[in-house]
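Could you help me review a protein record that somebody else here produced? Here is the record exactly as it was handed to me:
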Amino acid sequence: MRVLHIITGLGVGGAELQLRLLLRHLPADCDVVTLTDAGTVARGIVADGTQVTDLGMSGNRDVAALPRLARLIKAGRYDAVHTHLYRACLYGRIAARMAGVRAVVATEHSLGDSQMEGRPLTAGVRALYLAGERLGRMTVAVSPAVGQRLNRWGVPRQRIRVVPNGIDLDRFRFDPAARVRTRRRLGLPDSAFVVGGVGRLTDGKRFDVLLHAAAQLPEEVAVLLVGTGPWEEELRRLAHRLGLADRVRFAGEAAHEESGADGAPGLPSLLSAMDALASPSPEEAFGLALVEGLACGLPVIYTSCPAVDGFPAGARADASYCPSDADSFAQGLYGLRTALLPRRPAPAAVRHYCITRSAERLMRVYASVVPGPTLEVNPR
């Protein structure tokens, strides 16, 4: 089976990294088109052995990209087109129809109650999304919560399939040597209680809540923020105003490998350096970073996480709900610090989000939209 994945951009982000991980495990012949920004993740996908084409769109209204994309789809003789993120879903569905490909699947990675991928959910955004959705065959939701939101928007239930995001469980196993090495590189004392936050540094992630909470905690509590984004400078200024400049580390973008190309610690190593993981975001479509933290044996404290909500009853011992306010997070983190819990193995429930399982479920979605004669799977 030949599948073309179309995504808005390939800088570092949750959807982009998830696509790269899926491509490693999908038993199909895949290519990738990025509408713009063939960045860090694009280079990683190419290094993994998958072709990436940068369409070079100049902006959201660059409609001249449509015929170029349609010609590319037609020339590739793809059995299915799989789109990711808002702009790619709209342009990709239209271009696939122009190219005569009707087996179109779209994954909705980041749909909250009031925003999608950081943009407010206005009536115009919703109407345009639904108009494009009708050109596809199936919409994949990364969690039941996203599936329910899509249905409330007007997407028929029979056109929605839930395929949770997945992680490479072995990659995120706690590494005590990486913990020591990473703390030394970041200048974090061995005795520090390090609270992590992982994700795009945007207002929606509410890492300001985490900084205000840290300001109420003893000086040995440090904060490690992993990610970049438009709120980075604001968060740096806030850390200074709160007197936290020497207790907050900004790690920047992090590869999902043990280390990046420049030798900087990757996300698994950064998680190993932490003692707890916090997510004050009130709207998450899935919460993949928290699952990765749990796989690393970390206790996590969160405001919204459909992934954790999807665990079986009684399987959330290492994950605690907390309202998205500084006082509540300070209280929750203080409790974790004083408990001095030993690092524990990953809870069995995280296996529910193993990437191989997600890839198998996605292949079943492809099988439901692609005509029978093309269902032969091509091992990579």
Summary: The longest strand covers residues 2-7.
